[in-house]
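USER:
I would value a second opinion on how I read folds in C-alpha cell form. Give me a protein, with the fold worked out from its sequence. Write it directly below this note and I will take it from there.

ASSISTANT:
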Amino acid sequence: MRRGCESPRFAALPQAAAKALAKTLNGPLPAFCCAALLAAGSALALELRVVISRAAENPQPVAGQAMASRSTLLADFNLALAREVCRRLRARCEYSYAPFAEIIPGIESKRFELGFGNHLRTAAREAQVAFSNPLWRSSSRLLALPGAALRMARQSAGELTIETLREVRVAAVRGSQQHAYLQRVATRQDLELIELATVGDCLLALDNQEADFAFLPTLIAYLALDARARPTPIFVGPGLVADGLGGSVHIVLARTDEKLRQQLDLALDEMRQDGSYPRLWRRYFPFDMY
C-alpha cells in the first residue's frame, strides 16, 4: 500500500527533494499534500475546444449524445470520433457545432483547437491550418434514376462514366468542384450543365426529370438520398478523385501547435492499428472510404 503521496509523480522528483518531501509527508499533513498535488495535476490536464461541422438538424451536443438520423450521420460520426480522440489524448474537451465556413477561421483565431469539418487538404488551406493524418477519402460520382442509367448504359460502348457521357443533362451544385469540372468538359462532350444551389436540389431535379444525371460528392450525396423515395437515384460509374474531384479528408488544427498534431496523429494511428477506427466508421456508414 502506498504511503502519504507516494505516486509516479512523487517518484519522479529529484532524490534530495523527494526525501525532504517524504519527511514532511510523514508528518500530520499527508492528506493536504496529496490534495494539493492532485489539484496541480488536474490544472495541467490538456483542455481542448473541439468544433464539428454542423448538419442543419444537429443541436449542440447534450449529455454526450448526438441525433441519430441519416441527415446527421456525418456530423454524428465526427462527434463520436472527436470523443474517442479526446479520450486517448486524456484531454478535457468542450464540443460545439458550427457551419463549415467558420471552422478554419475559428482555428486561426484560436477559438478552437481541433476542427472536425471533413476538410480536404489543399495548398490554399495549408497556408491557414495544419492537418492530421488522413481520415477518409473523398470522391465524386454520378447519380441517376435507374431507368436513365440503364438507357445510357445501353447506348455507351463501355463503362458509363463522366467521360463517356454525351448529349445529356447533368446537374451540379453551383461553385462546387464538380461544377467546375463540368464547365471544362460540357462543350466538348455536348452536355447541358444545370447549375443548382444544393445537393438536395440536384436530387430533386433527377426526380422531376429535369436532369438525367447529377454529379456530386459521393458521401454527401449518399447522406442526402431519401431511401424511402421510389424510384431512388443510384450511383453510376466509379468514384473520381483526379482534377480536384476528391482527396484525403483531415482534422484541422493550428499550424503552430506541432505537439498537439503529433499527439493527434498518434491517437489516430492507434485507432487504426487496434481496429477501433474501422469499427467506428462502419457503425455509421455501409461502405468503406478510409
Notes: Residues 140-240 form a domain with the D-Maltodextrin-Binding Protein; domain 2 fold (CATH 3.40.190.10). The chain has twelve helices and eleven strands. The chain has a mean pLDDT of 82.
